[in-house]
Write a structure and sequence with these properties.
- Helices cover 37% and strands 20% of the residues.
- It is an alpha/beta fold.
- The protein has a six-stranded parallel sheet with strand order 2-1-3-4-5-6, with helices on both faces.
- Helix 4 links the parallel strand 3 (86-91) and strand 4.
- Bound molecules: S-adenosyl-L-homocysteine, iron/sulfur cluster (SF4) and FE3-S4 cluster.
- FE3-S4 cluster (F3S) is lined by residues 55-56, 58-59, 92-94, 126, 211, 214-215.
Length: 483
């Protein structure tokens, strides 16, 4: 970050903006600083921002990049959205309810904006990649100042300058990109752990899923850039990284010098000072024996694998375009559990996919009962315009889906409480993440298998890895004692 600041300070903003990135953005960051300073003098106080993130870890990581730019140009963080001068929603559109929440909150912001002449509202993220959303915003939400998408988030500073100079709604959405811009500012939410993008986009086109349409084609980051970023993070106090991609198992296929995800992990493992490596998400169809072997022998890769099954029915999996059968998935899990017996497995499941019969659903229940996941995210199928599944016949009635969903949730929760409790009495290595939200004599830490434990401690422990005796399982978490 320090290096970046030096570059930004050295930009000459009396000249035309450079064409190449990231220099172009450094130029606009410096330019934006002047506008923010002016506005802040007018207001007679520092200007503030509030970024709200919807959706997955990709979005969370993108939001850190937004915050990085906002802080560079002189905004200060304000947790209360109603008081902030720059409100940003980084949106998700994977299910319909995520969209509805954004429209609802935008309506409320209209009032806040009337009371604050400096207020700006920015919208970005996956929802903005859908043309019908942008149309609706243009006609019914005219109080929005800035709209951009997932492919040009690196241009954030430039777009802010455009907004300051034009005084009208700025919209910049790209359909796709093959560009990856490195070395932009970014502000981490946690000092001791960080998400690291290893790839962007998705090529799988699962038939229910909107992500490939809003995140574009799969692009892997150069391994050297990934390693360099992690080395910098470690130098800055980070001990745990979460490698991020929609399908990390297909990492490296489109690089000039192709490389597998397992090979990348081997390189990351060598980084001195890095203690823990996590990754998500793994698509079962691409999970290689090589990866299982790397996980088995690694000292740093956490004993946790998120392996979305989506459905237990081979028929439905075919219609979902997942490209594995129930049997292949079960066999894969068997292989993983044989190699790494203490691994914690989690999953995503969709209920009510078009054409799902009671028998199909029972196949899903069967997989859940056989595998006994540590935890599972269960979703009601949500119809996404433009995906193949939205046009399929036999959409399932709401009451049938709800009934199946409730049965599945109960099964998943009962199993997960049982699975969680098996560690009672053991000593685990735990990364202390925060003070306990309800009791300030306790800290909260995360084990390698992703479970949380609360134990006596103070703020000085945050970011440290310590040994904790797990005294009592409380369903989905533990109470423990530091050794
Ligand atoms: N790339 C990841 C998942 C990204 S979306 C993967 O392939 O596993 C996260 C989860 O949202 C998915 O695993 C799926 O379970 C769920 N999901 C995606 N589209 C959905 C839809 N249309 N309706 C309901 N759930 C959906
Ligand atoms: Fe969506 Fe499938 Fe890609 Fe995951 S792998 S993001 S579920 S299309
Ligand atoms: Fe949502 Fe986009 Fe992630 S649609 S789940 S925020 S990739």
């Amino acid at each position: 970050m320090k290096n970046i600041e030096k570059y930004i300070d050295n930009m000459d903003i009396t000249m035309e903006a450079p064409v190449s990135e990231p220099e172009r953005q450094y130029y606009f960051i410096k330019k934006a600083r002047n506008y923010v300073r002016q506005a802040s003098e007018e207001a007679g106080r520092p200007l503030t921002f509030c970024v709200t993130t919807f959706g997955c870890q990709m979005n969370a990581r993108d939001s850190e990049k937004l915050v990085g730019v906002l802080e560079q140009i002189g905004y200060q963080e304000e947790p209360n959205e109603d008081k902030a001068d720059f409100v940003i929603y980084n949106t998700c559109t994977v299910r319909e309810n995520a969209n509805m929440r954004v429209y609802g909150r935008l309506g409320q912001l209209k009032r806040a904006k009337k009371n604050n002449p400096h207020m700006m509202i920015g919208l970005c993220g996956c929802m903005m990649q859908e043309p019908h959303v942008v149309e609706k915003l243009k006609t019914s939400y005219k109080h929005v100042d800035l709209i951009f998408g997932t492919h040009n988030i690196y241009k954030f500073a430039e777009l802010i300058v455009t907004r300051y100079e034009s005084n009208r709604m700025v919209i910049d959405i790209w359909k796709d990109t093959d560009k990856i811009v490195e070395d932009l500012p970014s502000e981490r939410k946690f000092s001791f752990k960080s998400g690291v993008n290893i790839m962007f986009g998705c090529n799988n086109f699962c038939s229910y899923c909107i992500v490939p349409y809003v995140r574009g084609r799969e692009r892997s980051r150069n391994p050297k850039d990934i390693i360099r970023e992690i080395e910098k993070l470690v130098a800055d106090g980070v001990v745990e990284v979460m490698l991020l991609g929609q399908n990390v198992n297909s990492y490296g296929k489109n690089l000039e010098e192709p490389m597998t995800f397992a090979e990348l992990l081997r390189e990351i493992e060598k980084i001195e000072g890095l203690e823990r490596i996590r990754f998500m998400t793994s698509h079962p169809k691409d999970l290689s024996d090589e990866l299982i072997e790397v996980m088995r022998t690694s000292k740093k890769i956490c004993k946790h694998l998120h392996l979305p099954v989506q459905s237990g029915s081979t028929e439905i999996l075919k219609k979902m375009n997942r490209r594995y059968t129930k049997e292949q998935y079960l066999e894969l899990v068997r292989k993983i559990k044989t190699a790494i017996p203490d691994i914690s497995l989690t999953t995503d499941i969709i209920v009510g996919f078009p054409g799902e019969t009671e028998e199909d659903f029972l196949d899903t229940m069967d997989v859940v009962k056989q595998i006994r996941y540590d935890s599972a995210f269960t979703f009601i199928y949500s119809k996404r315009t433009g995906t193949p599944a939205a046009a399929m016949e036999n959409q399932i009635p709401e009451d049938v889906v709800k009934n199946r969903f409730d049965r599945l949730l109960k099964e998943v929760q009962d199993i997960s409480a049982e699975v969680c409790s098996v560690h009672e009495g053991t000593v685990q290595s735990v990364l202390v993440e925060s003070m306990n939200e309800h009791d300030d004599t306790l800290v909260t830490g995360r084990m390698s298998n992703n479970l949380l434990v609360h134990f006596k401690g103070d703020a000085s422990l945050i970011g440290q890895i310590v040994n904790v005796h797990l005294k009592e399982c409380k369903g989905f978490y533990y109470l423990g004692e530091m050794q």
